[in-house]
Amino acid sequence: MEHSTRLAHISEDGTRTQTVYDHLAGTAGLAGSFAAPFGAQSEAEFAAWLHDVGKYSDAFQLRLKGGPKVDHSTAGAQEAWVRQHLHAAFAVAGHHSGLPDGGSPADDPGDATLFGRSKKPVAPYDGWQEVTLPASTPPAWACADPLSLAFFTRMLYSCLVDADFIDTETFMDGKAAPRGSGTDIAALRDIVSAQAQRYLSAESPSPVSVQRNTVLRACLEKGAHGPQGLYTLTVPTGGGKTFASLAFALEHAAAQKMKRVIYVIPYMSIIDQTAAVFSGLLGAENVLADFSNAEYKTVEQDDLTPAQYRQMLASENWDAPVVVTTAVQFFESLYANRSSRCRKLHNIADSVIIFDEAQTLPGDYLAPCVSAIAQLIQHYHSTAVLCTATQPALEPLFRRFAPELHPQEITPDAARLYEVLRRTTLQDLGTLPQEEFAARLARHPQMLCVVNRRKTAQQLYAALPTEGSYCLTTLLCAADRRRQLDDIRQRLKEGLPCRVVSTSLIEAGVDVDFPVAYREQCGLDSLLQTAGRCNREGRRGAEESIVYRFRLVGLSIPQMIRSNCDALDYTVDYYPTRLDSPAAIHAYFEQLYDSRGEKSFDQNGILDAFIHGVDGCCLPFASVAKQFHLIQNSARTVYIPINEGAVLCERLRKGPINRILLRQLGIYSVSCYFEQFQSLYNSGMLELLPDGSAILSDLTQYSQKLGLNMDVETGRGLFF
């Protein structure tokens, strides 16, 4: 059959054309292959064949010759709508502008909702009848309830927009880009398995090494033979869970014929070091570190090496065997509505997903996060592992969304593991005056003290001997924090004086080993994270490696951790001497979640919005995307012009300002609350930029030991 000459694209040089039919066919083939892992190949093909039928119109053909903009998405959405393919109608309607709200039957043709778009007049698009739509029925589970319907719609949308991008890119470039070029999962499994055998066959004189090997063996065994589903990996801090969890993931992915491993990290500050470890083992070409400061995102495209170019392409849709990302990026993408954020979602299907430090899943969004994990396990051939030293009590939430899901613990006899790996003793110092407490800290040649506020850290640091003392807070830019941590590790290694006062930023993912530690009043999870920086390698007895809890006279508990502190007090009553046991940790989280109440786990009503609608609007994709932000960022950015940062700030002044430059400046930036920002500005210390950020113009206000000086206290706690 001869197809229409109606065009979808013209190359930039004007020498090549792509017909609408060829673009629809190419996109359908790709979209179908993307949706096959979750049984939706025909539905994805259906949506793809319809997505650009509006380009058959005379109006769009005129647009290709320089005419006015044309809405070419609504036509296909209406065709899907009248055929009662709701998922496809949403996907097609939003493939450029983002998934719309569903709206209500009362919406007008001018409304941006799907109901409104269904009534919108469109330019005639005769000729599309050459398209033969495939017979298609969405999987039954995709329509079983509103949450499944919304999740499936977003996954279908992901398949469509990624396929559309790739087919268009291939035509415009005149060739296919080097995507999907990583090593086969089974080959990566073999690399990690070989390394694991070297660990297991080495002499293990220390109890820590012996137990790390026990965990590793369990991960290899369960990964190879365990079914697809939900797992927990409960290992004390320093128990080797990073490598062991990767070993599980690759063994499991190979055994279950899965495509990739996704490692979800709680904080951006540690993502690069995790990715570096994996890259050193598996090869940089196989590990995608998807975060804002990644190397391939800080180089102009024309200057990218072939390897960086492949990484850049992979970051668009997570087409890599191993992906390391943040919890913010992972979950916000799952509730996003824009094509740029959703494009990667279909590649989460058919994956092993490791949630590192699972206890840090945000309490205000815990229900939507657990709901998403349950969807991925139940319907998208994914396995999830909740990996932590302090396992949160999430069973009731999983039962709510997926009663048939029962988490399997990978570690055999976790209670014994915690007993054998016990390397510290927890003691309560009670409440002390700050002067007395500072003098106590100064008497230790090496110690770590973790506090709740940046100001407290600075004050305690000021009372310590100058030599070998450090103050770690986010008042320091990331470049200076990294430099200080390098110094700290070296001094600890050499046995030199090393006293560190830090906020909670040191508690996760920072590999340091102090003989004694102090932690200001906090929750049990934070207390045990601090304990994980004390006697980490087990070189000293637990009785001589003390982790002290303390309070300071005149300092109240910050509001945002009050419930955590109360839950710890409750747990102390029942487990006064074994707060580091799995039973105590479970009791702590049960009390914490019970005290907060079920509604607190979905503070913004994300799930309710899909179940019941919002003000008569059904399936509010666009509205929810605006509400779902794990970090409510009211902070303002101050750039510090030191070292390379000085050159970057000068480029910032001269312009143009672009995302690459801002990413490079990220390690020379400090965040502060608006009141503090305004105080610095009013004092003439800041050079204001058009986007609301600023360059520090008075460098006397920044110390490479203490960070940015902010004299004005706002009364708001700063915890990082």
Short structural description:
With 720 residues, the protein is of the alpha/beta class. The protein is 43% helix and 13% strand. It has 28 helices and 23 strands.
Secondary-structure blueprint of this entry?
Elements: E1 7-10, E2 17-19, H1 20-35, H2 41-50, H3 58-63, H4 74-82, H5 86-93, E3 101-103, H6 114-118, H7 146-173, H8 185-201, H9 207-225, E4 230-234, H10 241-255, E5 260-265, H11 271-282, E6 287-289, H12 306-317, E7 322-326, H13 327-334, H14 339-342, E8 351-356, H15 366-379, E9 383-388, H16 395-401, E10 408-409, H17 414-420, E11 425-432, H18 434-442, E12 446-450, H19 454-462, E13 469-472, H20 478-494, E14 498-502, E15 517-520, H21 524-531, E16 546-552, H22 562-574, H23 582-596, H24 606-612, E17 618-620, H25 621-627, E18 636-639, H26 644-654, H27 659-664, E19 669-672, H28 674-682, E20 686-688, E21 694-696, E22 702-703, E23 707-708
Parallel strand pairs: 4-9, 4-10, 5-7, 5-8, 6-7, 8-9, 11-16, 12-14, 12-15, 13-14, 15-16, 18-21
Antiparallel strand pairs: 1-2, 3-17, 18-19, 20-21, 22-23
